[in-house]
Design goal:
By secondary structure, this protein is of the alpha/beta class. The chain contains twelve helices and eleven strands. Bound molecules: flavin mononucleotide.
Length: 348
């Protein structure tokens, strides 16, 4: 179904309160596809969001789940010390680091029971048996990948579509296993490079994501073989998004580069380079979600120097406009871009 969208534009799932039923419904109304983000939500809150979305729209929509990884054995001592110091200055207690599975099984049962039309996964691939159950419930299964090796793994478990994420992307990288060494948790491919390599490795429809902000970018990835473009940062400033005020203000202010960091969650993610990110990235351990729980009270202060301000590399070009207008604009720009390309000279 993803290759039959009226507009080949997908609003990325954005956990942490950004994706809302209103955002998803408006993107669907404009002919694109919206995603709810199950990450960090309770099962009850996710159920309420799915029900609300179905009330707002008859169009198909998606839900994104975090695939749980294994428990980290990384040493957290140094990072705990640094977070405790920042917390003391901010007047809050640091959180208690712990592993959890984000209620993965219960959320999977929920999307099956509520017959969510599109279910996507990040941080890994689901089991083959779960993919079969989703297919039996009529769902299209999407798996986020960042390398050809992950793409082959996702193809083996029966994914219908892959979401190919380049390292320009805002928020967490979908890397299956964080190597704990390189800044991105594994090889860093840009969106076009990842798309090319993955399309040579597997025979599945591909969604491209990472750094896409203009209709010309949408056209570019379609020309390069994608069936749709998934945009996150481009929708952060929409009135329908649940983006925190401090996050909106930091994006609008600009003047800062983005960087990959494990400092907030223990997994590589791209955000605006504020003080906490800059000071803590070099020593942050690969320990997700332990570090996520550790830094939670700091992030909740609302202080833009302490919050995770997730953003893709092209964030200065994102505009504050209603979601349906953004989808329409992207479509128009994409058409224009395709029509204005002229390849000169005949092939010899
Ligand atoms: C605030 C924010 C939250 C995100 N949360 C999720 C998520 O819950 N699940 C997911 O698969 N991807 C998540 N992403 C990544 C997006 O799916 C997508 O890969 C990324 O936004 C694309 O890059 P762009 O932001 O440059 O458009 C998030 C991105 C942002 C900016």
């Amino acid at each position: 179904m993803l290759d039959r969208l009226d507009v080949p534009v997908i609003a990325a799932p954005m956990a942490g309160g950004v994706s809302t039923p209103e955002l998803v419904a408006e993107v669907g109304r404009a002919g694109g596809l919206g995603f709810l983000a199950a990450g960090y939500l309770s099962v009850e809150a996710l159920a309420a969001q799915i029900t609300r979305t179905a009330e707002l729209t008859d169009r198909p929509f998606g839900v994104n789940l975090f695939v749980p990884g294994s428990r980290s054995s990384a040493d957290l001592t140094e990072h705990r010390r640094r977070v405790a110091r920042a917390a003391a200055v901010a007047g809050v207690e640091p959180g208690e680091p712990r592993w959890d599975d984000d209620h993965y099984s219960a959320k999977l049962e929920l999307v099956l029971a509520l017959r969510v039309p599109v279910v996507s996964f990040t941080f890994g691939a689901p089991d083959h048996a779960d993919v079969e159950r989703l297919h039996a419930a009529g769902a299209t299964v999407v798996v986020t990948v960042t390398t050809p090796a992950e793409a082959r793994q996702a193809e083996r478990i029966g994914a219908d579509v892959l979401c190919v994420q380049g390292c320009e992307a805002g928020g967490h990288r979908g890397t299956f296993v964080d190597d704990g060494v390189s800044p991105g948790g594994g090889e860093l491919y840009g969106t076009l490079a990842a798309l090319r390599l993955v399309s040579a490795a597997v025979d599945l429809p591909l969604i491209a994501t990472g750094g896409l902000v203009h209709g010309a970018d949408v056209a570019a990835v379609l020309v390069a073989g994608a069936v749709a473009a998934q945009l996150g940062t481009a929708f952060l400033a929409c009135p329908e998004a649940g983006t925190a005020q401090a996050h909106r203000a930091a994006l609008a202010q600009g003047g800062t580069h983005t960087a990959l960091t494990r400092a907030f969650s223990g997994r590589p993610a791209r955000g605006l380079a504020n003080r906490f990110l800059t000071e803590n990235t070099p020593h942050a351990p690969a320990a997700y979600p332990d570090v996520h729980h550790l830094t939670k009270p700091l992030r909740a202060t609302g202080d833009p120097e302490l919050m995770s301000l997730w953003a893709g590399q092209t964030y200065p070009l994102a505009e504050a406009a209603p979601a349906a207008e953004i989808v329409r604009r992207l479509h128009e720009q994409a058409r224009h871009a395709v029509n204005s390309v002229a390849l000169r000279g005949a092939p010899t």
